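In response to reviewer comment 3 from the previous cycle, which asked for concrete evidence that the modeling workflow produces usable outputs, we include below a single protein chain processed end to end. The sequence was submitted unchanged, and the resulting structure tokens are shown without manual editing.
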Amino acid sequence: MSQPVDMNLVTAYVDEHIGEFHSKRLQAIGNLRLSNLLKKKNPYLFKAKNQEIAGELIRGILDAYLSSQEETMFGQFLEKLAIYVSGLADGGQRPATLDVDLDFARDGTRYLVSVKSGPNWGNASQHRDLELAFRTARRQLGLDQSIHVIYIEGCCYGRQQNVDRGAYYKKCGQAFWEFLTCDPDFYQEIVAPIGHQAHDRNQEFLSAYARVLNAFTDEFLDDFCNEDHSINWNGLLAFNSSSEPAPRTSRHPRAR
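The workflow returned the following structure tokens.
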């Protein structure tokens, strides 16, 4: 039988650990280099979208990169929160050497859970690997056939409730958090503690973001724009895709 989850403990946990996410955001933007961003993006797409304003192009590249990074970083926070909450409810814990994230027992059933941030996390091959991970985990834990084991792919957001994948079940969003806590409202109750400190932390991030955006735009204007300030698409393509990329040549050389 699950124990009721004490929201005071959940709030305290979030307050202690949410700062890790915000710190990683700042670190991610602080470590960025324009050259690395430009090498990873498709310049043909920008041309097809008629992006001729340097500042808008750089903002688009920067926002796309940061969005992807934030999804990953915040997903890691949510996964740790789910494991903590399961610990409060059922004594759930992360197995030390297994490829699954959570192991707990409830009412005579053993649950092995792979915790994901959201529902669209992998391709067909990765989903097959998940099936193998579940079977391997059961064997490593020494769970014989007399023990009833259910495998769960749990997603911290999304609408899929109890999808039968054959080898395991998939639960997302409200259904997943209710599965962990037996509380249908828990997925909403964690919003308030997660939002704590968000305003002040985001102001710090926005200041860093503005500095990086301005610096990258300035650098792009120097290195990838013509004398008339139009974008030098050939130069950008050579930097991004040439077999022997030519070095960038600044219109206004300066120390970096």
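The chain has one domain: 7-241. We consider this sufficient to address the reviewer's concern, and the full set will be provided in the supplementary archive.
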